[in-house]
Amino acid sequence: MSLIKILRKTCRKALFTTPSHGQKYFIFNKFRNFYKYDISETDFYNPQEALEKAELQASKIYGTKSTLFLTNGSSSGIIAAVLASVSAGEKVLLWRNAHPCHNNAVKLAGAVPVYYDLQISQEWDIPLKTTVENLETYLKNEKIKAVIVTSPTYEGIVSDIQALKSLCSKYGAYLIVDEAHGALYPFSENLPESAVKIADFTIQSLHKTAGGLNPTALLHCNCNLDIKKALSLINTTSPSYPLLASIEANINFLNSKRGKKQLELLISNIKSLKENCSNCEFFGDDITKILVKHKDYTGFELSEHLYEKENIEDEKTNSKSTMLLCGIGTGEKKLKRLENALRKL
User: Fold this and answer.
1) What is the pTM assigned to this prediction?
2) Which CATH number is correct for 42-254, 3.40.50.620, 3.40.640.10, 2.30.30.240, 1.10.10.10?
């Protein structure tokens, strides 16, 4: 029985178990249905076994050695991957301006951070991709046990993961890819290649672009390290089964004909927007990240204009450009609104 089917069962006995709301006492009534589906790991229908089956099915869909469901965001996946890969005193190579969880993972492992820098685009004021040249000197001269790479970047710049994996294998280092913003990649040939079948560990956030609830994510593994043991060091023993079931449903949707059709429609609509906004410039490897600039505006001015005049809020901005994040839930109407706003600039 799947997690989704377990939670759909409405017939409940008198529960003298956790959670103490008993699925009938709704302190926050707007979450009434969430309470009704919030079960314990000791539930009669054995949700732990259903979770294992759902994760096994997910690994088949993604083509990985294993795929684990995360309900504490990609940060927990990064931390678990580092804990599994290195021991105290060993070195981890990471980008100097990476997400804070990269540094936190190294600290928790008692490892030693070694930092690399990325080239910054002067034209767009964003960091560019991680290259073999960025890493090889460190791998050659330091005893690096693991490398953490962010791909795609926040702005949608994608690195050559196959080349980076070959480099890491040459020097005996594990490759961990923070693909938090690339959860849609495995489901369309019109998006960059995902790291899920290449890197030793790939971590994806379903909530960022794939339509998932905060903070659902995935941890993909392609090596023989005991990642479940590492994850158990930081995971709760009382997980949220509604969130876990939402992950199962999320993956099933992305892998369905309906989900793939929705994704291709999103890509098509963004392509149309870019073609129709010839007064703007666009950049990046990931079309779902609309990185845009205009000759008459700084990035900050463009962001302010869109917010104040058009009631459109962007995801991130800088001195040269503005990035608007799209995902599986970004409809045609919303994109048309953005298109009209950009064309009026």
Assistant:
1) 0.91
2) 3.40.640.10
